[in-house]
């Protein structure tokens, strides 16, 4: 498996523009998480899905942020309109519920570094 | 509130020496999982080691081992025979039964040649 795949790796945009980050989880994983990492706030959970259904979005900072998971192999995190304070690294992670050594382990993508000017 | 605390923002160790990174957590749950993740400069988050709270035996993975003290809610990571490639940010994480993984603020470890 290629692991969790995120795109783009880097995004530079201007304030007010729409940003869409994409994630392909590991095949067979039924949980998907979106995290944001900044120096000031560390790793923050934004939202997570189970079987494509959003379970907890209490970490989404405001209405400008939205996330979707239309199917088991794809999720998006959208920011509209973007602001400079949204600059961060956004991670997608997935996990499965099967037993064994991988049970309950979060596998992260490489992250998307967003810079809003 | 369920929290994870890493009290050492930065640490350094000489190559081939041993270093211990501390982590404490707070929860009223009895069953949960604990993890250490490594984030090198490439920023990829990599699992180092995992511990299940109901297992008394401390987890080990090659040069990495943990000291899990459930009553004290402590979960430290020991790195033996430190290597230059161990230089990274290390995050302690905790997962109670809700599947919300809670991360500490990290410890930046530098291995010196």
Description:
The complex is a heterodimer of chains A (117) and B (113). Helix content of chain A is 0%, strand content 53%. Chain A is mostly beta strands. The N and C termini of chain A lie far apart (36 Å). Chain A is built from no helices and eleven strands. By secondary structure, chain B is mainly β. Helices cover 0% and strands 51% of the residues of chain B. In chain B, strands 2, 5, 6, 10, 11 and 12 form a six-stranded mixed β-sheet that branches. A four-stranded antiparallel β-sheet of chain B has the order 3-9-8-7, with no helix packed on it. Chain B is globular. The model of chain B has no long low-confidence stretch (mean pLDDT 93). Chain A binds chain B through residues 31, 33, 42-43, 45, 48, 50, 55-56, 89, 91, 93, 104-108, 110-111, 113, and chain B through 33, 35, 37, 42-47, 50, 91, 93, 95, 99-106.
- What form of chain A results from the Cα inertia axes? globular
Helix amount of chain B: under 10%
The percent range for strand residues of chain B is over 45%
Distance between the termini of chain A: 36 Å
* Mean residue pLDDT of chain A: 93
Mean pLDDT of chain B, to the nearest integer, reads: 93
Helix-strand makeup class of chain B: mainly beta
Q: How many beta-strand elements of chain B?
A: 12
SS-based class of chain A: mainly beta
Radius of gyration of chain B: 13 Å
Strand content of chain A: over 45%
Element pattern of chain B in H and E? EEEEEEEEEEEE
Oligomer description: heterodimer
Helix content of chain A: under 10%
Unreliable spans of chain B are none
User: Biggest interface in this structure?
Assistant: A-B, 20 and 21 residues
- Please write the string of helix (H) and strand (E) elements of chain A: EEEEEEEEEEE
Overall form of chain B:
globular
Q: Count the strands of chain A? A: 11
Q: Determine the N-to-C terminus distance of chain B.
A: 41 Å
């Amino acid at each position: 498996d290629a692991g969790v795949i995120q795109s783009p790796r880097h995004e530079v945009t201007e304030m007010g523009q729409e940003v869409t980050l994409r994630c392909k989880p590991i095949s067979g994983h039924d949980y998907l998480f979106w995290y944001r990492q900044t120096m000031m706030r560390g790793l923050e959970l934004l939202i997570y899905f189970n079987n494509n259904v959003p379970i907890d979005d209490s970490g989404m900072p405001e209405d400008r942020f939205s996330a979707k998971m239309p199917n088991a192999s794809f999720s998006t995190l959208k920011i509209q309109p973007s602001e400079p304070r949204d600059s961060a690294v956004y991670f997608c992670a997935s996990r499965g519920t099967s037993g064994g050594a991988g049970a309950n382990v979060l596998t992260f993508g490489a992250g998307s570094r967003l810079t809003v000017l | 509130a369920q929290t994870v605390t890493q009290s050492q923002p930065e640490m350094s160790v000489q190559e081939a020496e041993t270093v211990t990174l501390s982590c404490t957590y707070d929860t009223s749950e009895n069953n949960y999982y604990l993890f250490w993740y490594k984030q090198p400069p490439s920023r990829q988050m990599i699992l180092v080691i995992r511990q299940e709270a109901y297992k008394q035996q401390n987890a080990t993975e090659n040069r990495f081992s943990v000291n899990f003290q459930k009553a004290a809610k402590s979960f430290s990571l020991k790195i033996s025979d430190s290597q230059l490639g161990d230089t990274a940010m290390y995050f302690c994480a905790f997962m109670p039964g809700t599947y919300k993984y809670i991360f500490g603020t990290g410890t930046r470890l530098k291995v010196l040649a």
